[in-house]
Design goal:
heterodimer; A: 193 residues; mainly beta; Lipocalin; 11 strands; B: 180 residues; alpha+beta; two-stranded antiparallel sheet; 3 helices; 12 strands; 23% helix; signal (chain A); DUF6705 (chain A); DUF6705 domain-containing protein (chain A)
């Protein structure tokens, strides 16, 4: 009898705590961003899901050189869930060194929730081979912020083009003037390792 | 490269044009502690980046949030805070953003002593981006409520007809449109 009561209790709790999940494929997410209700689209719980496995091709370690600087990006796929919006998305960490190996910027060891880790973002409307990551730099108060676009191409998608589209939002507490951008504002070519 | 256009207004009614920032499309809203009463600027529409997808050759577009940014909110609050020193009436303080999705104005009816303990730009940017995925007005109002946390910031939408509608959140976190 005890077991039956426990089972009924567990089932009741699952029913009450269960929210209807509305699924949006990751490649369709961009279509919702301009809507009044964004990705929520009038629903209580939305999952932006990588149903067609379109995000995996961006993951891995990517390296390249541009303007005498070495760029290394480590891109992973993850799932976030704030109880209202669940999302399959990409995170990107990076290390930039100069020609002498001196570190210009390094976010490789930062945790997922660090603002300095690039985070998705969406597959752009124009191509399933390009993804937009949100960028917040360590001098974001002085304009290090914007959107990083990554595009895969080549045989087996082993090449990547990457660039920063600067937003340049300046905060009140910026006292040093506009900060130099550390991510490439021109297109840099990376190779999958 | 597309840029925003905007002005700050001083207490004598004079408008000064804003400059753009470091390679970006945003404007640097410079505030004069003794004189600034508000700002007005245009937000861009989505614009082509000038870059193309290497696989398909299709040009891609930079999407723009047609709403005040966290930096805009902080600047607005700073103008409000300065009324403690410059004798500008708080009722004159404003921030206005003009976009193809509508014109929005911020006003402040709270206590300027509550404008304190603001977080870093990095934290605000991150919180804002995540919330704005849930809708332009809803995301922004939730950002004010949950992250800026200063009572008395009011958001108004000015329709093309000239009608002004206040935007607030109800208890369930949905947007309510009021009447003026």
């Amino acid at each position: 009898m005890k077991k039956v009561i426990t089972l009924i209790l567990v089932l009741s709790l699952s029913i009450f705590s269960c929210k209807a999940q509305h699924i949006i494929p990751v490649e369709k997410a961009v279509d919702y961003l301009d809507k009044e209700d964004g990705l929520m689209d009038g629903k209580d719980y939305v999952y932006v899901k990588d149903i067609n496995n379109l995000l995996t091709k961006f993951t891995g370690t990517w390296k390249g050189t541009y303007n005498s600087k070495n760029f290394e990006f480590k891109i992973v796929k993850t799932t976030t869930d704030d109880g209202e919006l669940k999302e399959d998305l990409l995170l990107a960490r990076y290390k930039i060194t100069d020609s002498n190996g001196r570190v210009i910027e390094n976010t490789l060891d930062l945790p997922d929730d660090s603002p300095y880790v690039l985070f998705g973002g969406y597959i752009i409307k124009e191509s399933i081979y390009t993804y937009m990551l949100n960028y917040i730099g360590k001098n974001t108060n002085c304009g290090q912020n914007g959107n990083v676009f990554i595009s895969v191409y080549g045989t087996n998608n082993t090449k990547m083009k990457l660039f920063l589209q600067v937003a340049g939002e300046m905060y009140f507490d910026c006292t040093t003037g506009a900060a130099k951008q550390v991510l490439p504002t021109k297109v840099v070519t990376l190779t999958k390792q | 490269m597309k840029k925003e256009t905007g002005y700050v207004q001083d207490k004598n009614g004079v408008f000064t044009q804003l400059n753009d920032t470091n390679g970006g499309h945003s404007l640097d809203i410079k505030i004069d502690r003794d004189n600034t009463t508000g700002y007005i600027y245009t937000h861009l529409n989505d614009f082509p980046t000038g870059k193309t997808d290497p696989k398909t050759g299709r040009p891609f577009i930079n999407k723009i949030k047609r709403m005040f940014s966290p930096a805009d909110v902080i600047k607005f609050l700073q103008i409000a805070k300065y009324t403690e020193y410059n004798n500008i009436p708080l009722s004159s303080v404003y921030g206005t953003m003009v976009s193809s999705s509508g014109t929005y104005t911020l006003k402040f009816t709270g206590n300027t002593a509550d404008i304190k303990d603001l977080k870093t730009a990095e934290e605000y940017e991150s919180d804002y981006i995540k919330l704005m995925k849930k809708g332009n007005e809803k995301g922004f109002l939730r950002f004010l409520r949950d992250h800026i946390k200063v009572e008395g910031i009011e958001l108004y939408k000015i329709k093309n007809s000239g009608r002004i509608r206040p935007k607030t959140l109800d208890e369930s976190g949905k947007v309510e449109t009021g009447d003026c």
